[in-house]
Amino acid sequence: xxxxxxxxxxxxxxxxxxxxxxxxxxxxxxxxxxxxxxxxxxxxxxxxxxxxxxxxxxxxxxxxxxxxxxxxxxxxxxxxxxxxxxxxxxxxxxxxxxxxxxxxxxxxxxxxxxxxxxxxxxxxxxxxxxxxxxxxxxxxxxxxxxxxxxxxxxxxxxxxxxxxxxxxxxxxxxxxxxxxxxxxxxxxxxxxxxxxxxxxxxxxxxxxxxxxxxxxxxxxxxxxxxxxxxxxxxxxxxxxxxxxxxxxxxxxxxxxxxxxxxxxxxxxxxxxxxxxxxxxxxxxxxxxxxxxxxxxxxxxxxxxxxxxxxxxxxxxxxxxxxxxxxxxxxxxxxxxxxxxxxxxxxxxxxxxxxxxxxxxxxxxxxxxxxxxxxxxxxxxxxxxxxxxxxxxxxxxxxxxxxxxxxxxxxxxxxxxxxxxxxxxxxxxxxxxxxxxxxxxxxxxxxxxxxxxxx
Length: 454
Description:
- The chain is α+β, with helices and mostly antiparallel strands.
- Among the domains are: 141-154 and 226-372, no CATH class; 160-213, no CATH class; 412-449, no CATH class.
- The protein is 43% helix and 17% strand.
- It has helices spanning 26-38, 41-49, 64-77, 82-91, 93-98, 110-119, 122-138, 172-182, 190-199, 257-274, 296-302, 326-340, 342-365, 376-400, 405-410, and strands at residues 146-151, 154-155, 163-165, 210-212, 219-222, 228-239, 245-252, 285-289, 307-311, 413-421, 424-434, 440-449.
- The longest helix has 25 residues, at 376-400.
- Mean pLDDT is 87; it is low at 436-448.
């Protein structure tokens, strides 16, 4: 083989589409593009967003279909910030084609995404989320018979050091300096303030006393890893039979599970009604959740309605006293009987697997454990399209066996062969990378040469 030499770069006058280099991830995006085009996604998005734009005057904006596709790329590529999404799309020819960009057309920058998000209300994002849900329902991926509900935490785009007292507007650092002056330290250093903060008794940050100046809707909360941050509370309603997320709500982090459950169930029932799978009193859907959602008031309100509860019950040592509230007693005992049955135990195991998997995909692998937007409505808009990408991943796994571009590449067919040649064993790897039509390019790689066979 001769040595390749790098010469002066000369631009090509004409380049055909087939000569353009492609990345291995194009297999996934090509097939997803075919699904979206077949369902006429761009026309739907433009018709939905048309009332929020000027009819005649003004420069053309980012096409709505491109705006929503870029946020879906954020899920598939695991990118948390919109600036990162812009960079990733600009660096990939496959993603440029997925965004339906012309050769000389530039990728919309993050400021265009921010403008478009501020122009479009939350109802439009909910409509797009419902459209994706209806699309996967056409392929039988929405059953609506067993719904699991759980919540997690998302770090807000605000720092704890920026919080101020609600009554006086005093910052946390100013409070420590005042306490240091009261203890006799006139000019405290940073080490003195840290030492004083650690040593003082009764240290507690309450949302009733403190608020963030940069993001007032973010609340002080304990994260899943044990740290304390300003955060939001995402809550999912997931179809336990398919893994599709039926509803994805963003609540205040200081609200308990029993408080936010009603809003999530209302959104889930509305989304199921749009795909003609809404639960009824005659045919209720099973509601499966952990012990954080168990309370007498919740079970009493849901008893006899469209949800058949299977809520885990906390262990108690004391006897339950009902004080004449027979409705709450009957609801608690009925839920306990349903929970102890074989079907109930199987549903709880399924909840622990499927619902937690939705958070692992959207928050951890999908890159949304930390928000880079401020305001609950802004975070909810981005999160809805992010979860819509998760549902599209379930559809792609149903169609081609891979829910993400990396998984599509990893699922290339591999065959390991052993051939005896001149008293030696050659281990060869035969691989095939599938394309969008299920075919693939084959290759042969010798991966090892062993000693003489025994």
